[in-house]
Design goal:
Number of domains: 1
Number of helices: 7
Number of strands: 9
Structural class: alpha/beta
Distance between the termini: 26 Å
Oligomer: single chain
Shape: globular
CATH architecture: Alpha-Beta Barrel
Largest sheet: 8 strands, mixed, barrel
Radius of gyration: 16 Å
Length: about 250
């Protein structure tokens, strides 16, 4: 993802539904390949590194959605978050907030609650994406890629985060990750795929590469660290109408 501070950063179930309505919205038309997505909604993700984004310019260049870094651990808030989040909405761009996970510092539930309080909330207004959880290599200690957690502990941490987000917002978080990190740090757990939309970091040829265990298609794909839109370049794997539906269910 877009750089924030010194780190390099590289998706939902409605309560009471036996099968996620959001998953059905996605599975109804997604192919798992960006090659078929010539008309797919384009988007991007930003953090404090982008500072004062030209949102009208981004919209003019094709941005239809954006994820904005809100928080990290329970100690960091993006100082530009409010103006970025409100600016995107004012420009007519669907927006959502993401939390950079620091699993070694505190529980998943604590970090989820912190994120929801500081921008990572959700409401069914047609303009708000469900909160996203950013899971990637530890940028502060390359020797502890998985934050010194066992695979079982990491799965437990993610479950804790997800349960708190669902309790507070009614949505499951979107999960951002790579196949390599997921398989390495969760042991290839497949327990999240049924009710968590996948935001995959997959750069290079469209459709190339493996999925994290359990998933067979992505909802969002980050495909480049730079391009015409501020921050990292992304696609939604579906139509604009389905993207809007995804914000509401």
């Amino acid at each position: 993802m877009a750089r924030d501070r010194t780190s390099s950063r590289r998706f939902v179930r409605v309560a009471g539904a036996a099968v996620s309505a959001a998953a059905l919205v996605l599975a109804g038309s997604l192919t798992g390949s960006a090659a078929s997505a010539a008309g797919a909604p384009r988007g991007h993700d930003v953090s404090s590194h982008q500072k004062n984004v030209d949102w009208a310019g981004a919209k003019a260049r094709g941005a239809r959605f954006v994820y904005i870094k809100a928080t990290e651990s329970t100690t960091y808030r993006n100082p530009y978050f409010t103006r970025q989040y409100d600016g995107a909405r004012a420009a007519g761009i669907i927006r959502g907030a993401y939390h950079f996970a620091a699993p070694e510092r505190s529980s998943g539930a604590r970090q989820a609650a912190y994120s929801v309080r500081h921008g990572g909330a959700w409401r069914a207004d047609g303009w708000t994406l469900p909160p996203a959880l950013d899971l990637e290599d530890n940028p502060y200690d390359r020797r502890r890629t998985c934050y010194a957690l066992s695979r079982a502990a990491m799965v437990g941490w993610i479950k804790s985060f997800s349960e708190e987000v669902r309790r507070e917002t009614g949505r499951r978080p979107v999960i951002y990750t790579t196949a390599r990190w997921w398989d390495n740090c969760t042991g290839g757990s497949s327990v999240f795929a049924a009710d968590h939309a996948l935001w995959i970091a997959r750069h290079g040829a469209p459709g190339a590469g493996a999925f994290p265990a359990g998933w067979s298609f992505w909802a969002f794909r980050q495909y480049d660290n730079g391009g015409s839109l501020p921050g990292d370049q992304n696609l939604f794997n579906g139509s604009l109408a389905r993207l809007k539906t995804f914000t509401k269910v």
